[in-house]
Amino acid sequence: MRIIGLDYGTKTVGVALSDENQIIASPHITIERKHATKLRQTYAQIEEIIREYEVGLIVLGFPKNMNNTEGERAEATKDFAENLERRTGIEVRLVDERLTTMQADRILDATGVAQSARKEHIDKMAAAIILQSFLDMKKNEEDI
Q: Which domains are present in the chain?
């Protein structure tokens, strides 16, 4: 069973997938939409990926503020999670995503991705970082 990782933003959703052994997260795609509130096609694309890759769990980045409070984006993310869980019937787990976009930008910089091309990769890379942190946490819990 694979796990899908999502980085939900106002106009994009970065998507990452685990391998079948749930060890490594890899960037997959970035889903774009024209309007922040138009989510029907976004849900449909995520559902298609879930079917195609036989996903059994959804990990969604949860945007807490740096002082650990929850703001407007956190509320929108909770709504997205509830709708996604209802539509797919698959559990959605929220994972702290603070600083993942900065970390993704550093990785893209270190790997030589041009500044002009980063927009294409940043969200799916952030999704992979979110998913990898979940996979690592899960493995550490199993090792205890």
A: 2-143 (3.30.420.140)
**3-7, 30-34, 74-78 — most confident range:** 3-7
Task: Report pTM.
Answer: 0.87
| SS3 sequence of the chain | CEEEEEEECCCEEEEEEECCCCCCEEEEEEEECCCCCCCHHHHHHHHHHHHHHCEEEEEEEECECCCCCECHHHHHHHHHHHHHHHHHCCCEEEEECCCHHHHHHHHHHHCCCCHHHHHHHHHHHHHHHHHHHHHHHHHHHHHC
